[in-house]
Each structure stands twice: as C-alpha cells, then as structure tokens.
Design a protein that fits this description.
Helix content: 25-40%
CATH topology of the domain at 15-272: TIM Barrel
Strand content: 15-25%
CATH architecture of the domain at 15-272: Alpha-Beta Barrel
Number of helices: 18
Largest sheet: 8 strands, parallel, barrel
Shape: elongated
Strand order of the largest sheet: 1-2-3-4-5-6-7-8
Radius of gyration: 30 Å
CATH superfamily of the domain at 15-272: Aldolase class I
CATH class of the domain at 15-272: Alpha Beta
Oligomer: single chain
C-alpha cells in the first residue's frame, strides 16, 4: 500500500467530438433524413459524447430543419456544435452570411475551418497569405462574442506544416490569439502516418504549450485511428471522428475503435462510463441501421466476428483462459464470444457450444457423443454445409446428437409451380405443402414472389394453427451459393437463410443439388429453431386427418 504522500498519476481526460452527422453524412451512399439525424444525435448524447456536430447551417434545407427541430433538446452532458468556415474573402465578418447562420442555429458551440496550407490559400482561395490570417483572426474573434466555445479546424494542417511550417504555425497562432478554445490539426487528405503525426503534434505542443490541441484524421491510408492515438500520445486532448468510421472518401477516424483503445488500452478517460461502454456494440449497430448499411462482421471490438474462434487449438486454449486469444473481455464493449464450428473444429469447439446451449448441464468432456457430433459435422462440412454462418442449424444438430430434440412436424410432400408466360410478364409461383403434425395431416397452398417465398408461406400456413408463434416469423435474407463450377447446372448449392420474429434473428443452412430441396432444409431448420426458442411442445399423436385447406 502506498502511503498518503505518494503522488498518484493523473488520468488524462480526452474530449470526444463526433462528426457522424456532418462529415459522416458525406459518405457515398448515405443520406440521413432529419428524423434520422435527430435520433442519432439523441443516441450519441445518451452515450456520453462531449461534442456532437450537427451539420452546416445554411448548407442545405435538411441541416437547417435539423437545427430548428433540435432546439428543444434535453441533453444532460453533450453539447451541440454547428459547423462552418471562416468568413468569405472580401466580406466583413459581422455581415458574413455563413457566420451569421452559425449564430442563428441555436447550437451550443461553433466549429469553423480555415486554410493552413499556403498552397490552398493562394490556389484554392486565391488570396494572399496575410489576408487568410486576417480572416482567421476576425472570424474566430467575432464568433467568440456569440459562443462560449469556438473550435478552429486547421484544414490540411499536416500537409501545410510540411510545406511551410512557419505559415501553418502562424495560422494556429492567429486562431489562438483570437480566443479559439481548441486548435484542431486536420489530416484532411488522409495521407499521413503515425510517426510524423506524433512528431508534428509534439512540436506544436512545444510552441503552443497552453493551447488545447485536437486531431481530425481521415482514413485514406487506413491510418486514421492510429494517427488519432499517436496525436493523443503527443499531447492532443480533443479527438474528432465518426461512428463506424464513415465519412468522405475512405472515411473518418473511427470513434468505435478510438474510445476503447484510449480507455481500455491507454488508461485514459474519454468521459464514457463503464456502463455506457457496454453499449458500444449496440451504438455501432444503431448507426448502421440509420445509414442503411450492412455491418462489417470483422469490425474490431464490435463486429460479430471480433471475438469469434474457429480453430480447435484456439478454442481449447480459451476454454482454459480466455485471454490467451482475446485481447479484452468482449462484454466490456457489449460484444460476446463466438465459437465457430467447421471442418477445422475440435472437441473443444463442440464442448464450448454445448455449454452455451446448456449452461447448467453437467457435460462429460469424454462423452462419446462429442466425438460422434464432431464426426458428423466434419462429414456435413465436406458435403458443402457451413455451420459458422448458421448457428441455428448447428444448435439443432447438437440437440439431435444429444437426443434432446423431437421434431415438431414431419414433411409428407411439397410441390412448387413456377410459371412464366412471355418475355415481358413476371413469373408466377405457387407452392403446396402437406405435413403431419401430431398424427394429423395438414395441407396448405400459397402464392409467392418467387418459389422460395411461396414455399416459405405455404409451409408456415400449414403449421400456424398448431404453432401460432409462427405468425410472427419472416425471412430477412436469402443467399444461394454454387459450391463448385465443375458440374455446371448439376452442382450442389448451399442456401443460407436469415429469419426473424421481430425480436431475434437466426441463421440456417441447407445443401443439395436441387436448390428447392436445399431451401426446404434451411426453412425446416428455421421453423424448428423458432419452435425450440418458443419452447413449443410437439402435439400429441392423433389419428384424425385434417381436411385439406388452402391459404
């Protein structure tokens, strides 16, 4: 125990500045509605982000409406930031339209960018270097009369510092002398790497020791997170970025990675409590949903496969001590461990999966059932099955191997008609299904948008009276992959289906040389898994036969 006089190390506080709604919204293919932006801003505020950049007032009607509608915000900690630029050349700052729109926005703070690369001043703006310094001084000073906090983004700073160090520093000094609360060093082209980032920030910190410095990095060299961390190591205490790294061109620095790196790896304080940090994965998923983007399954910290283990040696090791192959506890960021099963699986993979399915069960690691299940999995994988992307099918397989599964229905037959008349008309699909449930024959037919949809609808229609829970089930994704091109149209195909009931999602797989047969196998597993999750008991056998009916 240290005595009371032992000095304790002060934990560095790093401000988080989120630009998802402004820089992130410039991502190709992303278009947030006003309501999307409001929902995202509120979610970021609930998470605990210090500064939330809402957009550029006056740049678009959407941004104007956003600032108007979010005036009644009730955030406990976060502050709303309006973005803009220094005054236009040849205009008095007090009459500059852009600066006035910032003041009128109702934001808590302003962030403006100015040129710090001499080439941009003389070529892009077409003014003298001194005129640019005047714009920076006067714009920051005027905004400080209306805002408590003004951030200055030194655009293209690292390129400017390399080309003309004295002028880049003069731009920072002009903003600092006019009252800027933080000087943000921008790697606007995204072409820097960590070593010079660290060196430049160190030099700036030495020349401006009393100024708060920030970093705004782009990801064109896939270095934005590393560059941001290097800048913090050199003395920056303000980090700008976007959730999931979205943004112009290759994106912005990814706050989803930066936050746990700084807090869990570097021991710094980003203002995110441990409880809120466990929401990191759900925050990432939420932004993907708002952006209508599929999640990156291998995204560090929060991706579905960030803590997935496939090799038998790896799984055997993490069963003894999980940090042998995991750099953090995934629960710290709201993620979880996944054990994948494939032809590379070992007994440890199977045992770990069983323990996930039956956490309270006393499972003998030497049970012959484990070897039997492993052998069956390897045989199925050799024939084309892939269970690492179909956990639901795998769990059903294990339940069968453990003799803890009883079918909820038996297929008698199915038939699918797919008719097309003429080149221009759409095809028409109809499926008929006959199943036996508890000894009763049930029959249904359905029209669908293609044979798969028709089969899905007919199968559930035949079962829904016995299992009402199927009413809420629907397919959310369907993929077909030809397993080999050597047999051409006679090749086996693998069908992967994602299903949902509005609360949960699960994946199943089927393989056959007949695409409809493969589809049925995946559909069968999807329905059986839903019934297992709902704990629906199979009906008792009866002798009566249900009359055929059509749905």
């Amino acid at each position: 125990m240290p005595n009371s006089e032992t000095p304790t190390e002060t934990i560095q506080r790093v401000e988080l500045f989120d630009t998802t709604l402004r820089d992130g919204a410039q991502t190709a293919g992303i278009s947030f509605s006003v309501q999307d932006k409001i929902r995202i801003a509120d979610r970021l505020a609930d998470f605990g982000i210090d500064w939330i950049e809402g957009g550029w007032p006056g740049a678009s009607p959407k941004d104007d409406l956003f600032f108007e509608q979010i005036r009644q915000r009730d955030w406990q900690h976060s502050k709303l930031v309006a973005f803009g630029s220094t005054a236009r050349p040849g205009h008095a700052v007090e009459k500059d339209h852009g600066l006035n729109r910032l003041v009128e926005s109702g934001a808590d703070a302003a962030c403006i960018f100015g040129k710090s690369w001499d080439l941009h001043v003389t070529t892009a703006l077409g003014i003298t270097l001194e005129e640019n310094l005047t714009l920076v001084r006067e714009s920051v000073a005027w905004l400080k009369q209306h805002f408590d906090t003004v951030f200055f983004d030194a655009e293209h700073f690292f390129d400017g510092f390399k080309a003309n160090m004295s002028y880049a520093m003069a731009v920072l000094q002009a903003a600092a002398d006019s009252g800027a609360d933080a000087l943000i060093l921008c790697d606007t082209n995204g072409g820097s790497i960590p070593f010079p980032i660290y060196d430049v920030v160190t030099q700036v910190k030495q020349q401006l020791p009393d100024q708060k410095l920030g970093i705004h990095a782009h990801n064109d060299c896939e270095m934005s997170v590393a560059n941001s961390v290097a800048a913090v190591r050199a003395g920056a205490t303000h980090v700008q970025g976007a959730i999931n790294g979205i943004g112009e061109r290759c994106g912005n620095a990814n706050l989803i990675s930066i936050i746990p790196i700084l807090q869990l790896k570097a021991g710094m304080d980003c203002g995110i409590s441990p409880e809120k940090l466990t929401q990191l994965s759900s925050l990432s998923q939420f932004i993907n949903e708002m952006a209508n983007r599929l999640p990156w399954q291998h995204q560090p910290f929060v991706g579905q496969n960030a803590f997935a283990h496939k090799g038998g040696i790896h799984v055997s090791a993490i069963r003894k001590k999980r940090d042998l192959y995991e750099h953090i506890d995934p629960a710290l960021v709201g993620n979880g461990q996944r054990i994948l099963v494939s032809d590379q699986a070992g007994r440890s993979n199977i045992l770990s999966k069983l323990q996930q399915l039956e956490p309270d069960a006393d499972i003998d690691s030497h049970d012959p059932m484990l070897a039997e299940a492993l052998q069956q999995i390897k045989q199925l994988e050799a024939s084309g099955y892939a269970f690492e992307g179909a956990d639901a099918s795998f769990q059903l397989l294990l339940r069968r191997s453990m003799h803890r599964f009883k079918r909820h229905f038996e297929l008698v037959r199915f038939r699918v008609f797919d008719e097309k008349r003429g080149h221009e008309k759409s095809s028409e699909s109809e499926a008929t299904v006959q199943v036996r449930v508890g000894g009763q024959l049930r029959h249904a037919a359905a029209l669908g948008n293609g044979p798969v949809n028709a089969m899905d609808k007919a199968l559930r229609a035949a079962l829904v009276d016995a299992y009402p829970g199927l009413e809420t089930m629907f397919l959310t994704d369907f993929k077909v992959r030809v397993l080999t091109t050597r047999e051409a149209t006679e090749a086996a195909v693998r069908v992967l289906i994602e299903s949902s009931d509005g609360l949960r999602k699960w994946n199943t797989v089927g393989v056959s040389t007949d695409v409809l047969e493969a589809t049925y196998r995946a559909l069968n597993d999807a329905i059986e898994y839903k019934l297992v999750m709902d704990q629906a008991p199979p009906p008792a056998a009866e002798n009566a036969t249900m009359p055929a009916k059509k749905r």
